[in-house]
């Protein structure tokens, strides 16, 4: 009688939802949304598609779960200090999202989609709650709370999205971004200063600016405006 042999390449231990989501995030970080396929994830986890579907669901569910995991961890990693002001807390939350999206370029698109598709989902609610409490603490009139928190959220997502690699675009991975920025500066130099005096004045700043510093400047401008809503 022949003794049955175990099929190679299968996991012996029980697979958890957290393990699946963590592996999905690794694939997304390495190659963007195109790299996250059920087949690639199954191979990485040495499991079958059925186990992934059972724990998480479809591919869109997996992307949503990865987004929620990264955003929740980013906000939880920067809790508000006991003595912090509302403005300081808003800056901390904004920087947490900035750094998370910078570290995970795929996140900008997915985060925007979640906010649009599921405005009462955990990601949207979590961000709004974190920002909204501080908007309230700033003394913004109650009838302006939603507008104020929405302005902060939209600025954060819009500003960071400009600094990350667009899905399908490989610029920024091998020095292309620096070459494109240099070419843009050279093209601006060709504009006549009589017609474009402002553009000529900021060419150097466009080339040498720090994205994080520029981002915080925008937050400061919005906070200044919010305090004037009292």
Plain-language structure description:
There is one protein chain. By secondary structure, the chain is mainly α. Helix content is 67%, strand content 0%. It is built from eleven helices and no strands. The radius of gyration is 22 Å and the shape is globular. Mean pLDDT is 83; it is low at 4-8 and 166-177.
**Regarding quaternary structure, how should these chains be classified?**
single chain
What proportion of the residues is helical, as a percent range? 55-70%
Percent of sequence in beta strands: under 5%
Count of DSSP-assigned helices: 11
Rg, Cα atoms, Å: 22 Å
Tell me the span between the first and last alpha carbons: 85 Å
Shape assignment: globular
Q: What structural class is derived from the secondary structure elements?
A: mainly alpha
- Which H/E pattern describes the elements? HHHHHHHHHHH
Low-confidence stretches: 4-8, 166-177
């Amino acid at each position: 009688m022949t003794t049955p042999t175990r099929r190679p390449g299968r996991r012996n231990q029980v697979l958890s939802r957290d393990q699946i989501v963590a592996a999905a995030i690794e694939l997304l970080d390495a190659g963007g949304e195109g790299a996250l396929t059920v087949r690639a994830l199954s191979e990485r986890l040495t499991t079958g598609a059925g186990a992934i579907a059972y724990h998480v669901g479809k591919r869109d569910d997996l992307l949503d779960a990865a987004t929620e995991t990264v955003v929740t961890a980013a906000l939880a990693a920067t809790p508000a200090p006991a003595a912090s002001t509302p403005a300081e807390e808003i800056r901390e939350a904004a920087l947490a999202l900035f750094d998370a999206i910078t570290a995970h370029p795929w996140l900008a698109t997915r985060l925007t989609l979640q906010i649009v598709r599921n405005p009462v989902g955990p990601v949207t609610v979590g961000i709004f709650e974190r920002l909204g409490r501080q908007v309230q603490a700033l003394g913004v009139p109650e009838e302006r709370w939603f507008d104020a928190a929405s302005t902060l959220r939209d600025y954060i997502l819009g500003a960071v999205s400009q600094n990350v690699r667009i899905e399908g675009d490989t610029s920024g991975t091998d020095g292309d971004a620096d070459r494109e920025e240099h070419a843009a500066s050279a093209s601006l130099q060709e504009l006549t200063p009589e017609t474009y005096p402002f553009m000529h004045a900021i060419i150097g700043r466009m080339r040498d600016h720090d994205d994080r510093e520029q981002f915080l400047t925008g937050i400061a401008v919005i906070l200044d405006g919010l305090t004037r809503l009292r």
